[in-house]
Amino acid sequence: MQIVFASNNKNKILEIQSMLPETIKILSLESIGCHEEIPETAETIEGNAILKANYVTQKYGFNCFADDTGLEVTALNGEPGVYSARYAGEQRNAEDNMNKLLEALSDKDNRKAQFKTVIALNLDGKQHLFTGIARGEITLEKSGNQGFGYDPIFKPEEYQETFAQLSLEIKNKISHRGKATLQLLDFLKANK
Q1: How far apart are CA 162 and CA 154, in angstroms?
Q2: Residues of the chain with pLDDT under 70
């Protein structure tokens, strides 16, 4: 079985491929000739994952899966949510995003937050959604240099370290993306 992951992030693709049996091969957008930026114009995280998966299936005819992730902060009514990557502007700068979020929470006592990843899978004419959530809180300052995005200011429940301080092995077990990916992998193994 060949399936497209609607991503050009080689590290993400290798990571998922390493978790699958050899009978399932992951293809990148580049390998199917998709070089355009796929629009992410939906109002929800689920919507963006579906948009990306549908784009590849409809335009290129492949079975495909795509993911989208957002950070939802309770005291900010779920912001930045679907706009997490461009919270501080279209430049999509992680430092700017973290600084804006820390500023927005500077007078708030409730710092509860959750990361949410949704994976949309288009397989043999049917669509399946897998959701992973990691609950925690936003720290007062940045700590750690692992990971990416908001990882230096997100401390998951039951840990004293931020995602940026945890090993990749631990983060993958407890993270939103890790949980959604495991559901996807279990589904693919059962349906190969």
Answers
A1: 5
A2: 192
Range of the structural domain that residue 39 is part of: 2-190
Are the C-beta atoms of residues 115 and 134 closer than 8 Å to each other? Answer: yes
* Bond into 156 cis (ω within 30): no
d(CA 39, CA 27): 20
Structural domain total, the chain: 1
> How far apart, in whole angstroms, are the C-alpha atoms of residue 39 and residue 68?
12
Q: What is the DSSP string of 54-99?
A: HHHHHHH---EEEEEEEEEEGGGTT-EETTGGGTT-TT--HHHHHH
pLDDT tens digits for range 43-85 = 999 999 999 999 999 999 999 999 999 999 999 999 999 999 8
Assigned token pair, 149:
């995005």
Local structure of 65: helix, strand or coil:
strand
* CATH number of the domain encompassing residue 131: 3.90.950.10
Report the DSSP beta bridge partners of residue 68. Answer: 118
> Of the residues 68, 96, 107, 124, which is catalytic?
68
Q: Is residue 68 among the annotated active site residues?
A: yes
